[in-house]
Structures are given as structure tokens and as C-alpha cells.
Specification:
CATH superfamily of the largest domain: ATPase, nucleotide binding domain
Helix content: 25-40%
Number of helices: 15
Distance between the termini: 16 Å
Largest sheet: 8 strands, mixed
Number of domains: 2
CATH architecture of the largest domain: 2-Layer Sandwich
CATH class of the largest domain: Alpha Beta
Strand order of the largest sheet: 5-4-3-2-1-6-8-7
Radius of gyration: 21 Å
Structural class: alpha/beta
Strand content: 15-25%
Order of helices and strands: EEEEEHEEHHEHHHEEEHHHHHEHHHEH
CATH topology of the largest domain: Nucleotidyltransferase, domain 5
Oligomer: single chain
Number of strands: 13
Length: 396
């Protein structure tokens, strides 16, 4: 009996899922969980497929524990619990940036790691940690196949006009272009939409991946034709602590007139902006929704305004709109924010059913709405596992 592990390593967390390969389903979920607060006071929470808690562990004095240390503990737990003697056949990883070259999942080797390391500056919050997890597992299990699954891949074949920046052609040819991210999430949403509403899946759809990181994707017939993130995952929508699209003149001003270094500007735009920067309170939308501060309301209103504004632009790329799909932490769970956004899209014919919206139902649009509105939970870990399984079959 064998299993596949999916890992999604971030700067302060590692999400994971374990899938069996011997069930009636192509991939049967055994367990999943998350290691959080890495670098502060790490905690591990594991749940079985039915949602029952299987393990809880905290390291209150574990600020010095690395991703590698915590992955070693995770492996030790997995061997004793849901795997129960199952052999891990392969591990799949989310890798945020694949650059121009990598448009499909790849078996990891030393050469691939070197090439992906060169892209770390384009995704500084994610890529270094994605690669650190790969290296940590290689040290623990050097014989275990590992597969890199790229967040940029889903957008790789979008129209050329949606990939270009208005800069000299030589720079575009060197890879400075619009890539797009959250591709594993959008790929999963495209598949699920085809299952729940095939007719809509074949039409003009905007998928809204709204979480601490946020973006939109315009899909035509289930394929990406435009997206809000570009060269880096800093672009596009306002996010938890990232600014999203910003006049490049602001960056020049910060450096030339305010004397900020490149490191300081990077920290400002990635870690101190977005909901956190505007509110001065928190990057967490739940905290802001509970706050009575004027600044919190301004941050929420700006988030909704920016999302609706970018959706309007993507409607132009699609030539119309048949459906809107909300996903990810905010998109799946925050009925109030969905309403804020949809209220700004009335000109498109978007109408919500308030009861269904509050219930986080699959279909939250009014029966009279000419634009279908859905909530579909994403599952990047399953998408990673499916890609890993494909690579694994190719090795046999």
C-alpha cells in the first residue's frame, strides 16, 4: 500500500495532505493538517479525512526550530498514524514561480533546484520556503521522488497580449513579463466547475481567489486568458499585507526622496501594506470586521473596491461575464465581503441571494441574476497530488 504527500510550504506555515493510492478513488484523502507559527511558537494540527483531530502539538519555546526540524517531526508522526505501514511513493510541492521555462510539473533534481533558486527574488515570501522544504525532505529521504508543481503553470499559455508589459522587447525576451499565480487553485476550480456546472465551465468566468494572498483569474472554457497578478505575487489586488498594484513612481519616490533602501521598500510593500497598512490594526479580515475603528472599515471598503474594479477589467478581457466563483479563505467564508464586492457589480447584472450567501452555499446568486455566482472551496493539495501521481506513473 502506497501514499502521496502534498506539501505547501510558506514562510511561517506548512500545509500538508496525505493521499492513499489503493482505494476506489484515484486519490483517497487519509489526513491533512498544518504547521503554523514557524519561527515564533510552532504548532502542529492534524485531522483525519472525516475532520476528527488526530494530533495536536505545540512548541511554545520553538522559535529556533526550522522547517527541516518540524518536517522531521511530521514524518515521524505520519509513520505511526495514518500511514500505518504505507510506503510514501512521492511528495509533491507547491512551487510558486516557474518562470518562462516551467509550464508543467517536474521531477526534482539538482539542476531544477538551481534554476528555481534563481527565481527566488520574484517570489520572496514563498519560493525560498518552497525550496527549503524540498531540500529538507531530500536530506531526510534522499531516495524519495519529489515533484515540483508550479503556481504559474496554469497561466503559461494565456494570450501574448496578456503577458506583455509595456517595456523594451529585449527585457520581455529576458523573462520580464506577466506570469500570474494561484494557478494550482484556479486549475482545481476549473475542474470542479466542470463537474458542478459544465455549461458555465465552458463560458466566461472570473474566479476570485481571496485570502491573505489574493488574485483574480479570467477563464474562458476553463483556461486562463488574463489574471491580476503579474511578474510577481505582489501585483494586482490589495492583500493581507501586500499592496497589490501600485504606481511605480511611488517606489522611486520612496527610494529617491525618502531615502529608503531596497530592503526597506521590499518589506514595506510585501509585509506592511494591504489590509494591515491601511487599517494599522491587522492583516486578518476577521479582526477588521470585528473592529469599530474607522480605519478598519476603510481597509475593508478599499479591498472590495479594488476587487470589483479589477473584475470590471477582466470582463473586458473576456468580452462579457457568465459566472463569478469565489474561493480561498475569504472567498469561501466571508459572506459580508462577498456582498460588498457583488454590490459593486450590479451594473453587470450580478445579484445575490442573501440567504444562500450567508449559508456559504454552492450557488449564492439570485435566480434572476444573469451572472451565476458560486462558492467553490479550493484544494491545492489535491491538485498537487494529482500532478505528482501523473509524474509517478511516468516513472514506472
Amino acid at each position: 500500500m502506497t501514499s502521496i504527500v502534498s506539501l505547501n510550504a510558506g514562510s511561517s506555515s506548512i500545509k500538508f495532505s496525505l493521499f492513499a493510492l489503493d482505494g476506489s478513488e484515484p486519490l483517497q484523502l487519509l489526513a491533512g493538517g498544518k504547521i503554523e507559527k514557524i519561527g515564533i511558537a510552532p504548532s502542529l494540527r492534524v485531522h483525519t479525512a472525516d475532520g476528527a483531530t488526530s494530533m495536536e502539538r505545540d512548541w511554545p519555546d520553538g522559535a529556533s526550530l526550522s522547517h527541516a526540524d518540524l518536517l522531521a517531526d511530521l514524518f515521524a508522526w505520519a509513520a505511526e498514524h495514518p500511514l500505518e505501514g504505507r510506503e510514501v511513493a512521492a511528495i509533491g510541492h507547491r512551487v510558486v514561480h516557474g518562470g518562462v521555462e516551467f509550464s508543467n510539473p517536474r521531477l526534482v533534481d539538482d539542476d531544477l533546484l538551481v534554476r528555481l533558486e534563481a527565481l527566488c527574488s520574484l517570489a520572496p515570501l514563498h519560493q525560498p520556503h518552497n525550496l527549503a522544504a524540498i531540500r529538507a525532505i531530500a536530506a531526510l529521504r534522499p531516495d524519495l521522488p519529489q515533484v515540483a508543481c508550479f503556481d504559474t503553470a496554469f497561466h503559461h499559455d494565456k494570450p501574448e497580449v496578456a503577458s506583455r508589459l509595456a517595456i523594451p522587447r529585449a527585457l520581455h525576451d529576458q523573462g520580464i513579463r506577466r506570469y500570474g499565480f494561484h494557478g494550482l487553485s484556479y486549475e482545481y476550480i476549473a475542474r470542479r466547475l466542470d463537474e458542478v456546472d459544465p455549461a458555465l465551465a465552458g463560458g466566461r468566468v472570473i474566479a476570485a481567489h481571496l485570502g491573505n494572498g489574493a488574485s483574480l483569474c479570467a477563464m474562458l472554457g476553463g483556461e486562463s486568458v488574463d489574471t491580476t497578478m503579474g511578474f510577481t505575487a505582489l501585483d494586482g489586488l490589495m492583500m493581507g499585507s501586500r499592496c497589490g498594484s501600485i504606481d511605480p513612481g511611488v517606489v522611486l519616490h520612496l527610494q529617491d526622496e525618502m531615502g529608503m533602501s531596497r530592503v526597506e521598500v521590499t518589506d514595506l510593500l510585501y509585509n506592511k501594506s494591504g489590509l494591515l497598512g491601511v487599517s494599522g490594526i491587522s492583516s486578518d479580515m476577521r479582526t477588521l470586521a470585528e473592529s469599530e475603528a474607522r480605519e478598519a472599515e476603510e481597509a475593508l471598503d478599499l479591498f472590495a473596491w479594488r476587487a470589483a474594479r479589477e473584475m470590471g477589467a477582466l470582463v473586458s478581457s473576456l468580452g462579457g461575464l457568465d459566472g463569478l466563483v469565489f474561493t480561498a479563505g475569504i472567498g469561501e467564508n466571508d459572506a459580508a465581503m462577498r456582498k460588498r464586492i457583488c454590490d459593486r457589480l450590479g451594473w453587470l447584472g450580478v445579484m445575490l441571494d442573501e440567504g444562500e450567501n450567508q449559508a456559504n452555499a454552492l450557488r449564492i446568486g439570485s435566480p434572476d441574476s444573469p451572472v451565476a455566482v458560486l462558492v467553490i472551496p479550493t484544494n491545492e493539495e489535491r491538485m498537487i497530488a494529482l500532478h505528482t501521481l501523473t509524474i509517478l506513473k511516468g516513472l514506472q
